[in-house]
Amino acid sequence: MATMLCFITTDADISPADLQSCLASAVERSLNSLSVDGDMSTNDCVIMLANGKSGCQQIKPDTPAYEQFEKALTQVCTELAKQIAHDGEGATKYVEVHAINAESYADAKAVAMKIANSPLVKTAIFGQDPNWGRVLCAAGGSGAHVDPAKTTLHFGDVKIVEKGEPVKLDAQIARKPMLEKELIIAVDLGLGDKSATAFTCDFSYDYVKINAEYHT
Amino acid sequence: MATMLCFITTDADISPADLQSCLASAVERSLNSLSVDGDMSTNDCVIMLANGKSGCQQIKPDTPAYEQFEKALTQVCTELAKQIAHDGEGATKYVEVHAINAESYADAKAVAMKIANSPLVKTAIFGQDPNWGRVLCAAGGSGAHVDPAKTTLHFGDVKIVEKGEPVKLDAQIARKPMLEKELIIAVDLGLGDKSATAFTCDFSYDYVKINAEYHT
Predict the structure, then answer these.
(1) Which residue numbers of B are catalytic?
(2) Which of A33, A139, A178, B105 lies in the 20 to 30 Å Cα band around B15?
(3) Range(s) of the domain holding residue A151
(4) Which of the listed residues B30, B52, B86 is the one where a domain comes to its end?
(5) Is A62 in the same domain as A21?
(6) Can you give the pLDDT at residue B214?
(7) Model-level pTM?
C-alpha cells in the first residue's frame, strides 16, 4: 500500500461484518494490488466507517444493493490506488499491469505483482525501452504457472510478443507506447480465464534521490 | 542469482546423485541467497562436473570426506556469491544481511532476503543512512514470524535497536558503519536458533542509469 492511511466513510446502513467483507473484497483488487517499490509500511491501513444515516434499507448480502455497494466501493478504492501509484516517489510514469487468462486468480495476481515490483522492468520503463524480455522474465519468476509458448504481451496497444515469439516490429512503433505518461502492460497467459491488475509506476533517478537523501 | 552462468569442476570421485545433493545444499546458502535487485534471469544456472581423477577413494555420504567436500564446495559457492554481489550493477557498497535466532531456517532466509531486496533499505544504504526503521519494516513484511519486542539490530558493530527499542546513540557513531565499503546488517529475531545470510549490495543512481539506458 506504499505507506498510506486510508479512511473511507459512507452513510449506508450496513452491518459491521458485511461492511468488513465488502471492504476486504474491494481492497484486495485495488489498494492491495498497488505497489510503488514492493516495500510495505507498518502504517498501511484502510479504515471504513458507516453511520447508517442514508435513510435507505439496510444493505444485506446477496441483494442487488449489496452488489452495487461493493462495486462502488471497489471503484473508490481503485481510484485511490491509482492516485497513489501516480504519486509514487520520483515516478515519471503511471503503470498498470494486467495479467489475464491465468489458471487462477492467485497466479494472475502473482504475475501482475512480480512484474510491477521488478526493478529491472521499472528502470526499463523509466528508460522508455520496450524490454519485453524483462517482463516475461519477471512473469516466469513469479512462481505462477506460466508457459512461454502460450504467453502474449502488449505494451499499450502494441503487441510485442505473441505466444512466446517476439513480433517483428519497427523499433519506432515498438517504442511508441513507452513514450506516454501512462503505460498498460498486458500479459495474456493463455492458460485459463482468471485475471488481476497491479497498479504501479516506474523507477527513476529521483526514486533513488528521494529515498537516499532522506535521513533519519 | 543475478544473471549468472556458474561452472564448477572437481577431480573428486563422487556419484552424480551425491554430487547433486552436495551442490544443492551448497547453493541454497550461497548463490540462492544472493540478490542484486530481486530479479532473476532465465540464464541463471550452476553446473558442476566431477571427473573422478583425484586418485582418492570415492566420496560417500555420512563420511568425514563427504562433510569436508560439502563444506569446501559451500565455501567456493559463497565466495562466488560474494563476488557477484560486490559486482552488482551500480553498487557502491557490498552488504551482508545476517538473520539469526529465527524460529526456522525458512523464516531466517525470508527475513534476510526481504531486507536484501528492499529498495527502501538499499537506497538508505546508498545514502549512508542508518535507517533501522526500514530494515525492521522489511523484516516484518517478510511473512516470517517476527516479534518487534524481541528483535535486536546491528549495523556493523553498532547496536542500533535492542529488543525493539532504538539505542540512544550519537548520530556520528550510528552513521560510522554506513560509511564503510562493506556493511553487515545483523537482525537477531530472538525466537529460536536458526540463521541465514543474504548477499547483496546497495541501490544507486548508477543502478537506474545502467538498467534504464540499456536498450533492447
Answers:
(1) 3
(2) B105
(3) 94-210
(4) B86
(5) yes
(6) 80
(7) 0.92
